[in-house]
Specification:
The complex is a heterotrimer of chains A (about 280), B (about 325) and C (about 350).
Chain A: E1 8-17, E2 24-31, H1 36-39, E3 47-52, E4 56-61, E5 72-77, H2 81-87, E6 94-101, H3 107-110, E7 114-120, H4 125-135, E8 146-152, H5 161-168, E9 174-179, E10 190-191, H6 194-201, E11 209-214, H7 217-230, E12 237-240, E13 256-257, E14 260-261, E15 268-270, H8 271-275
Helix pairs in contact in A: 6-7
Chain B: H1 2-17, E1 23-28, E2 37-41, E3 71-75, H2 77-88, E4 97-101, H3 110-116, E5 121-126, E6 132-137, E7 140-145, H4 152-155, E8 167-168, H5 185-191, H6 195-206, H7 214-218, H8 243-256, H9 266-270, H10 278-292
Parallel strand pairs in B: 1-3, 3-4, 4-8
Antiparallel strand pairs in B: 1-2, 5-6, 6-7
Chain C: E1 2-6, H1 8-21, E2 23-30, E3 33-38, H2 57-60, E4 64-71, E5 92-97, H3 99-112, H4 120-127, E6 129-134, E7 160-164, E8 169-173, H5 176-185, H6 195-209, H7 224-228, H8 231-240, H9 247-251, E9 258-265, E10 268-275, H10 296-315, H11 326-330, H12 337-346
Parallel strand pairs in C: 2-5, 5-6, 6-7
Antiparallel strand pairs in C: 1-8, 2-3, 4-10, 7-8, 9-10
Helix pairs in contact in C: 1-5, 8-10
The chains are: A alpha/beta (about 280), B alpha/beta (about 325), C alpha/beta (about 350).
């Protein structure tokens, strides 16, 4: 019997400080045991439990793409007991990764469609995974137009900045990068909040266009009416939730919203689905 | 007790009708014998659900913590003392409360009654004089002297009449004095034990604990936004049922109640396992009385002794 | 199905024989109440008990259980690598479990044993356990098993059902596991041909003694959101008295939620799980400080909605309750799942009313 609570042992291979306030770091892990990487086959939008012996586990969205081989990456915001400890860990340290968990973004459904990615702050991690996945030469032709609207407080708070700039130069993806404000005279992207940029830049909703929205509650709250106005149906607005979790495999009972378990039935839901569940997230 | 019940309903209706309060908090009959349910009324018609008998042992002061409304509250002696503690500790303002004082002849002990009969108790009746209590079930009916079936804290109570009230529902009942009762006999027995006996005693006392926190949550003093056992940064205490962690929880909680506990017994009454949690708080009550001449909840003018510093504070307990 | 006659002396003799074949667990009285415990050598289960204070849930699912062990010694080549500890998975038998508690295992199994993930701790214990049930001839006033998918003689989840017939027991052998256990115990006297009829008669008598019930027939039909939003009719009046202790959840045979915690002792540590309760604010608290169920009313609602609506909709196998009545008996403020269930069942979203009055 496979023990679903047993993490794969991993080694921290690389640590990148992502933001100017150093509250976000990206950890690149390599699996210690041969074969574990294959067992950890994942899709963009899934998450995993990062495990530190003696401290516990935390659920974190997978930031690397299934098309990137040899490692798995997570971008972690320093907030609680486990994440604070993780931020103090060094390259070479041993810990655990358990997963992949959850349902991922609906990639089968999205094939042949326009995909509009709307992200804010540090909820951009599984969106990075999705973009890298879609832009991969094997996959790009599966999707029509790709739009990305991504905002942060300031240029220094944007995740994956170099990649963002590189994507902005490409012609197979429409990048709309924005910051709440900046006094950098060199800043050549948008200024303004995500909902406003969405209203300006997002294509109108139609049967072939899906929006994936990930961000802080306030961003989601103000983006939804914009998408309504643009004509997106609630079954075409896709969101990824977070809730307190322990087991990650639908057993411990912590993360339910109504009869759905965020860890197993989610974390990805359409707005249409969420309209039918209690707002306990 | 029917007169008490009628009086409580009458006053509650009046307060609600006059708009004197936004809500009244009292007891409704529980769905099982020996456990009445804290309940509220916001309309005078709802006040007919209120009852009074020997099963009102939960402390209603626990239900006003941090509330914003004006509240009529049914309060027996210990509830009123805890309301005083709440007022001192800024958990409610005096002018938000209309205290409906209930002179109390003690609450019956559900654990004791259950143990006293062989069958399942289906109903409990108290005679109007308050002398006897009759428990009945399938094929049995037994009558007991009510005074012998009281919760231990009620047997040892010296403040049956509310010290703080706006209106009393009846004339005061006679108070017990140190002449009638030995309040700290059980505490002295433990004090006189040698360390090994003490260890065994506490070991046994807490051995049934399942860490459901009913004692803590029934306690009007335990209103910390995050209890120390629930803290994770730092984590002060383990979360399992390891006996050491269970002891830390109970001992620290008891100390946190020192000088504030009115010995209302809600902790013991709530415990699903029947643990006499009061064994810990009673010792601290005794110490507060002996060192500081202090009994909790008798005044709203003074802060509890462990909350204040005086140069002449006794220090013989620091060893 | 075969029925065996077991005389009182044969019961004890059989249990003695079983002691060498497996671990025996049974109801024993400690202090003032009964609990399920592993029996000491020569200790007999107290089959005269009415019910245990806490359920038999802990037999398969201990309140605190080590999931993994690890070394925190940096010189150890297994440093920080989690390992499942050796666990006793040898056969064991529960003697005298009540049918409601056994039926609760079926409810819990839906959670612990799924297509995608299997909880090895619960499942391996379950597989190692033979359940010898004891029919309830004298149910309590708080029992409502017959309307909660169980019953005083329910043997759906038992291997053997013992029925007290005054002079020993009639034992209905239900499964191969039960057959094997009866053989090892030497219980082999086949009862007369009227035994089944005698059991049925006693079953009918016991069922007729159950006075309380829940109505759950409309729960599935109700809209989930309608019930969830029934604040003034259900959740505020029911939730007011709640002190948010974990008594109901810990006493419940079908409450399965757990917390996972690491503990360290010097240079070693364990990852363990402990029962958790949706009554606690911590249960749903995010690391950010946001709490999606930040009021006690929301937490009371979660417990009842889970048992009486979410579970009903998710599994289509009735309610997540077998009617043992423990939460009703132990709740310090008399919150009664029977009343809540009847309120939910009779709730009319048009008028926002239930046919059942508040307590």
């Amino acid at each position: 019997m496979q023990n679903p609570y047993l993490p794969y042992p991993v080694r921290i291979d690389d640590i990148t400080v992502e933001t100017e306030d150093k509250s976000l770091k990206t950890f690149k892990f390599v699996f210690l045991k041969p074969g574990d990487e294959e067992k950890f086959a994942y899709r963009a939008g899934q998450f995993a439990e990062l495990s530190i012996a003696g401290l516990g586990e935390i659920p974190i969205g997978i930031a690397s793409s299934p098309t990137e081989k040899g490692f798995v990456k997570f971008t972690v915001f320093k907030t609680g007991k486990v994440t604070s400890h993780l931020h103090a860990m060094k390259e070479g340290d041993i810990m655990g990764v358990r997963g992949p968990m959850g349902n991922s973004y609906p990639w089968d459904l999205l094939e042949g469609k326009n995909v509009v990615i709307i992200g804010g702050g540090f909820a951009f991690t599984t969106l990075r995974s999705s973009i890298v996945y879609m832009l991969h030469p094997e996959n790009r032709s599966k999707f029509n137009d790709i739009h990305v609207i991504y905002g942060a407080r300031s240029p220094g708070m944007l995740l994956y900045k170099e990649e963002l700039m590189a994507w902005a130069e490409r012609d197979d993806i429409n990048m709309h990068i924005t910051v709440d404000g900046t006094d950098d005279p060199e800043w050549k992207y948008h200024k303004g909040f995500v909902p406003a940029i969405t209203e300006q830049e997002a294509p109108p909703g139609d049967a072939d266009t899906y929006a994936i929205v990930c961000g802080p509650p306030i961003m989601i709250k103000f983006t939804q009416p914009v998408l309504d106005k643009l004509g997106y149906g609630h079954d075409q607005i896709i969101m990824s939730l977070e809730n307190r979790m322990k087991c990650g495999v639908g057993i411990c009972g912590h993360c339910n919203i109504g009869k759905e378990l965020v860890c197993k039935d989610g974390p990805v839901f359409t707005l249409d689905q969420l309209n039918k569940t209690p707002k306990e997230y | 007790m029917t007169t008490y019940t009628q009086k409580i309903r009458e006053i509650s209706k009046r307060l609600l009708q006059e708009g004197r309060v936004d809500m009244v908090i009292g007891f409704a009959r529980g769905s099982v014998p020996m456990i009445n349910q804290p309940a509220f009324a916001t309309h005078s018609a709802d006040a007919d659900r209120f009852v009074w008998d020997g099963n009102c042992g939960i402390n209603l002061a626990n239900y006003v913590t941090g509330r914003q409304e004006t509240i009529g509250i049914v309060a027996k002696g210990c509830d009123a003392r805890n309301l005083a503690v709440h007022i001192v500790e800024n958990k409610i303002r005096r002018d938000q409360l209309y205290i409906i004082g209930v002179p109390c002849m003690g609450m019956t002990d559900r654990h004791k009654l259950t143990a006293a009969v062989a069958g399942e108790i289906e109903s409990v009746d108290e005679d109007e004089s308050g002398k006897t209590v009759t428990v009945s079930g399938d094929g049995f009916s037994e009558t007991f002297n009510r005074a012998e079936m009281l919760q231990e804290n009620c047997m040892l109570c010296m403040h049956r009449n509310p010290v703080l009230f706006d209106e009393m529902i009846a004339d005061p009942v006679p108070e017990q004095t140190d002449e009638d009762i030995d309040r700290y006999g059980a505490v002295r027995r433990v004090e006189n034990m040698n360390p090994e006996e003490k260890w065994d005693y506490f070991d046994d006392l807490l051995s049934d604990c399942i860490r459901c926190y009913a004692c803590r949550n029934a306690c009007p003093l335990c209103y910390c936004p995050t209890c120390f056992v629930d803290e994770s940064k730092p984590q002060w205490v383990g979360k399992s049922i390891d006996p050491a962690d269970i002891r830390i929880f109970h001992f620290l909680r008891a100390y946190h109640c020192a000088g504030r506990c009115t010995d209302c017994g809600a902790c013991v009454r709530s415990c699903p396992m029947g643990i006499n949690v009061r064994a810990l708080t009673k010792k601290l009550e005794k110490d507060c009385l002996e060192y500081f001449g202090w009994e909790a909840g008798l005044t709203t003018e003074q802060r509890p002794p462990l909350d204040t510093y005086k140069p002449d504070d006794p220090e013989q307990f620091i060893k | 199905m075969k029925v065996i006659q077991i005389k009182p002396s044969e019961l004890d003799a059989g249990l003695e024989k079983l002691e060498s074949a497996c671990r025996l667990i049974g109801p024993v009285k400690e202090k003032s109440y009964h609990l399920f415990k592993t029996l000491e050598p020569d200790q007999k289960p107290d089959l005269a008990y009415i019910n245990t204070r806490l359920s038999a849930k802990s037999v398969l699912y201990p309140q605190s259980e080590v999931m993994f062990e690890f070394s925190l010694d940096k010189n150890d080549d297994q440093y920080a690598i989690l390992k499942e500890p050796e666990k006793d998975r040898t056969p064991r038998a529960v003697i005298g479990i009540r049918p409601c508690d056994a039926d609760a295992y079926e409810v819990c199994r839906r959670n612990f044993d799924t297509e995608e993930y299997k909880d090895p701790y619960w499942l391996k214990n379950y597989e190692a356990t033979t359940l010898v049930g004891l029919a309830c001839s004298n149910p309590c006033p708080t029992c409502f098993c017959t309307s909660a998918g169980s019953g005083p003689f329910s043997d759906r989840n038992l291997d053997i059902l013992l029925v007290d017939n005054g002079d020993g027991y009639l034992a209905r052998i239900i499964t191969d596991k039960g057959e094997k256990l009866a053989a090892s115990a030497g219980w082999n006297t086949e009862a007369g041909s009227d035994a089944e009829a005698a059991i049925e008669k006693k079953c009918g008598e016991a069922e007729s003694k159950i006075k309380s019930s829940v109505a759950a027939d409309n729960l599935e039909k109700h809209s989930l959101i309608d019930l969830y939003e029934a604040e003034s009719a259900i959740w505020e009046p029911e939730g007011f008295a709640c002190i948010n202790c974990g008594t109901c959840t810990y006493a419940c045979p079908t409450c399965w939620c757990f917390d996972v915690q690491d503990e360290t002792y010097g240079k070693s540590g364990v990852r363990m799980r402990n029962w958790d309760s949706c009554m606690y604010p911590l249960f749903s608290l995010h690391a950010s400080g946001h709490n999606p169920r930040d009021t006690k009313i929301a937490r009371v609602r979660q417990r009842f909605m889970h048992k009486l609506k979410y579970y009903v909709d998710k599994y289509e196998k009735g309610i997540q309750c077998t009617g043992c009545g423990r939460c009703v008996r132990l709740c310090p403020v008399s919150i009664d799942i029977r009343r809540v269930c009847n309120k939910m069942n009779s709730y009319d979203p048009e008028t926002c009313r239930c046919e059942v009055a508040s307590g």
